[in-house]
Write a structure and sequence with these properties.
The protein is mainly α. The protein has a domain of 90 residues. It is built from twelve helices and no strands. The chain is elongated, with a radius of gyration of 21 Å. The chain starts with 10 loop residues before the first helix and ends in an 8-residue tail after the last helix.
Length: 241
């Protein structure tokens, strides 16, 4: 939950409130209660419908104003209004509302960070619902890479450690290898103890994935590539050192 403070507390606070107004409902997507998730999915479907309709209107206005020429076209009020409405609809939907990012590139203080973590947690905990309603592998990859480029405060780091643990316990999903970047950023005794437990578990997926991540943590100079993965799985990892 995102708490808003009174107006006048600064631009960052206002931005956090704006994010909560647009996408606060989306936290229902990761609720344990199926009814709460269902309600959030209904809201997401409606938000996505509005994006589709606004895009269709924007495209229609683009065609109608095209004879004006490129400069006049983008100054034409009706076309500008249609584009603005599409952008507004996108900001209130997923995954569209997460595209872009902070102007300075620093996610650690960006009010949109909780929603980035929300989107990644949704995919990690409820992959079938995520795939059905908001499948966006490129967005998943981009967001993982963004959170892996920034040092985070303790609560965010704990969330990222949880995500790495969830991912290593499951069967492979598209772009999951990107979480190695996250593991290297949040490397800690806590993360390693969780990975060690996973590597000793009865799950073949957990043993394989967790063992690989632990090995890469011990060898930070090695890239996380398909060749490195295949070599490690084949038991020939020593040849890479």
């Amino acid at each position: 939950m995102i708490l808003c403070v009174a107006k006048g507390a600064g631009k960052d606070a206002d931005d956090a409130c704006a994010w909560a107004e647009r996408l606060g409902w989306a936290f229902g997507l990761i609720a344990e209660d199926p009814a709460a998730r269902g309600a959030a999915l209904v809201q997401l479907t409606e938000a996505q419908r509005k994006v589709t309709e606004a895009l269709a209107r924007s495209n229609e206005m683009w065609l109608l104003t095209r004879p004006l020429g490129p400069e006049e076209q983008y100054r034409e009020p009706a076309f500008r209004r249609a584009r603005w409405r599409h952008e507004q609809a996108q900001e209130r939907s997923l995954p569209d509302g997460l595209w872009g990012g902070p102007a300075n590139g620093d996610l650690s203080t960006w009010p949109g960070l909780p929603y980035v973590l929300l989107f990644l947690e949704w995919e990690a905990r409820y992959p079938l619902e995520w795939t059905q309603h908001a499948k966006a592998w490129g967005t998943k990859q981009s967001l993982i890479r963004k959170v892996a480029r920034t040092c985070h405060e303790e609560t965010v780091e704990a969330k990222l450690i949880d995500l790495v643990e969830i991912v290593v316990h499951r069967a492979y999903r598209c772009k999951d290898p990107e979480y190695v970047r996250v593991a290297r950023v949040v490397d800690s005794p806590d993360l390693r103890s969780r990975l060690e437990r996973a590597a000793d578990s009865e799950s073949p997926w957990a043993r394989c994935h967790a063992g690989y991540v632990l090995w890469l943590l011990d060898h930070p100079d090695l890239p996380n590539t398909r060749r490195v993965w295949q070599t490690w799985v084949a038991g020939e990892a020593v040849s890479l050192l």
